[in-house]
Amino acid sequence: MTPIHHILAHPGSAHKDDFLACCVLLHFHPVAIERREPTEADLADPGIAVVDVGGEHAPERSNFDHHQFPRDEPPTCALSLVLKHFGLYEDAREFCDWLEPAEWLDCRGPVDTAKWMGAPREAITKLVSPMDVTLLRRFAATTELTEASPLWQVMRMIGEDLVVFIETLRERLAFIAKNAEFWTIEGPQGPFEVLFMPRTEPLPDEPSSGLPRFIGRTGKDDSVIAMVYPDRRGEGYGLSRHRDSQRMDFAPLEDACEDVHFAHKRGFVAKTSATDPERLRELLAMAQV
Predict the structure, then answer these.
(1) 198 lies in which domain range?
(2) Residue 204's Cα: distance from chain center in Å?
(3) Are residues 266 and 130 in the same domain?
(4) Burial code of 249-267, b = ≥16 C-beta within 10 A, e = fewer?
(5) Cα dist. 142→34, 110, 114, 187, 204 in Å?
């Protein structure tokens, strides 16, 4: 793979796909970003990554544009092309639920994307946050970004977190499969299933990370209603609903149990100092509604 010494993105307004494509590139090639129209020399130089502009997709020359694709091409954006270039796309499509909607939004626009999602058109704009607005506006306002720029540093962090998430989630799922247990608990309303993740050494940075996806991959999304996992802030455990199951309400536990030191008023999560599996089962049974 040719080392990239420069990243080139189109000038003018910026969108999520070209912004994130540059973030991923920065993770692998922490170089300057320039925002202008490419020249023929730029397109011919494999050391210059040309993103979302230039009229060609030629990864062997580090050119990642999708605008020349046929109208009926499956939604594919600049980020898709960059992820494919680094061999990350298939895992990203499986693990990043936001990627396919981002592809649709960039290629089909908000009206068709909302129809595809089965949501009203206004739902698209209601999900836009100030973080989206500020990052894209600041990126659009630049002509060049270097390591000295705070935005360049933030973009590199975004790229790092995204790539590390994609690259390590399969390993995380394998770790869960090796260590986790499915419990069947007899509650006042009948039996129910829970996923229990025991404390391990070393403890993962995010002990609950990957648990919902693991449950889904095992085909138990409909039967498992809660998760138990090590509390990273203490020696006990966190208790939470799976897929926000309304069959569990942890809120009453805070007043009823001395070993439950926190429960959200909405009932979807609680923290306990209890570590004995039998006590954890008792708390889960008490939370069943």
Answers:
(1) 180-287
(2) 17
(3) no
(4) bbbebbeebeebeebeeeb
(5) 8, 26, 31, 59, 38
Vertex 102 angle, CA 88 and 57, to 5°: 55
As a whole number of Å, the end-to-end CA separation of the chain is: 56
Q: What is the pLDDT of residues 220-262, one digit of tens each?
A: 999 999 999 999 988 999 999 999 999 999 999 999 999 999 9
Say yes or no: 23 and 154 in one domain.
yes
CA 111/CA 94 separation, integer angstroms: 24
264 and 198 together in one domain:
yes
The CATH number of the domain holding residue 267 is: 3.10.310
Residue whose C-alpha is closest to residue 218's, from 175, 168, 177: 177
Q: Whose CA is closest to 169, among 227, 211, 225, 218?
A: 211
Q: Residue type at 175? A: F
What dihedral angle (degrees, nearest 10) is formed by the CA atoms of 119, 125, 127, 129? 170
